[in-house]
Amino acid sequence: MRISRYRYETTEETHRTTNFEIFFDLVFVFALTRIVEFMAETPTAVTMVRGLILILLLWFSWSAYAWLGNEARADVGLIRTGTLAAMAALFVAALAIPDAWQEPEGPLPAPLLLAAAYLVVRVLHLTLYLYVSRSPQLTRTLRLSMIPLALASLPLVAGALVGGMTQTMLWAVAFVVDVGGGRIASGYSPWELRSVSHFTERHRLVIIIAIGESLISIGLGAGAELATWWVLLAALLGFVVSVCLWRLYFDRFAPVIEHVMATAPRARRGTIASDAFSLAHLPMIAGIMYLALGIEQVLAILMHHGTADELGLPSVVALYGGGALYLVGRGLCLRLTAGRTALPAVVGAVVLLLLVAPARLLPALSALALLVVALVVQCAVERRYGELAGPLAEAAS
After folding, report:
1. How many helices (H) and strands (E) does the chain have?
2. Phi-psi region of 11 (alpha: psi -120 to 50; beta: other; left: phi over 0)
3. How far apart are CA 132 and CA 71, in angstroms?
4. How high is the pLDDT of residue 322?
5. How far apart are CA 338 and CA 322, in angstroms?
6. What is the pTM assigned to this prediction?
7. 256, 236, 253, 331: which is closest to 287 by C-alpha?
8. DSSP per-residue codes, 8-34
9. Contact by Cβ (8 Å): 141, 149
10. In CA terms, which of 51, 128, 336, 362 is 20 to 30 Å from 136?
11. 3-state DSSP assignment of residue 384
């Protein structure tokens, strides 16, 4: 049956991720890699905070479309047309990211362009979601979410016009107002989840795409030609980091949280999706990006300086803090999904943070090797004694 471009198709409970949504995810992760490039240009504490603000804004934009695709098929009719427009706006935002804190001058000032693109993505999402909503509760939630978005647009645009540290503070305020207000609105009127399989699959795919893009960043950081054996070793260590991230999420963790969510009461699934996926997956995405940044900095030192040179403190924090963020995200996700305290993940995150001080004194390559050892040990400990042992582990088999 031919479906008009002005129609939409409501998703079924068995709905799965479409190829069109994977295309959307690729644009999103491209924007994330542009944030890594932005932070790598001048890796300072201020730059890393600004990068985090951009990650936060992009993540909750992506998450909004994951919810929309759960309500109506993203590859059909008007939803596809609107999502393509949002993808174009997201692509424009990605192009503007490296100059996001430059002085707003010229015919296309990058900060203002980025702010406008973000608002287009968010407004399109709410408009499309309202168009397909047939539930009074969902319509009420969407209308409530419009209020914080309208309020957040003021500091977002003002920050783009002012620039500097004021822009950083105003954009942080915009994030708190938009996302915080949206979560308050969902507390009064919870989101409704149609398909558990679709929602969990979207998050699995975005994690694996993010890990894959981080590998591409590492490969680009190694250069067109391998300068030395030390560069090759660092690139391989970066590959091991990616393998550890993959194993920590996909080995047993992902099947378990998906099983718990699928067997939860229908009324509770929307809350789990909002908390354990839309919220708790954010630290994992941020952690992957910071790890990619730290590994790129190791490669840059090996290529342009020497094997004895140390990493700067921001780069060490990116490496070990990124790993800690990833573990914290996993622990938080398990807690919000299954109600279990992920003690190995918490301990592993604390250990990584404690290793920042000694790693700061080591040569760059040794600091990366120490991180790899810590992540490999983390994988082994969680495999043997982790929070997924026992009844929950049976769900993954």
Report:
1. 17, 0
2. beta
3. 8
4. 95
5. 24
6. 0.90
7. 331
8. --BPPTT----HHHHHHHHHHHHHHHH
9. no
10. 336
11. helix
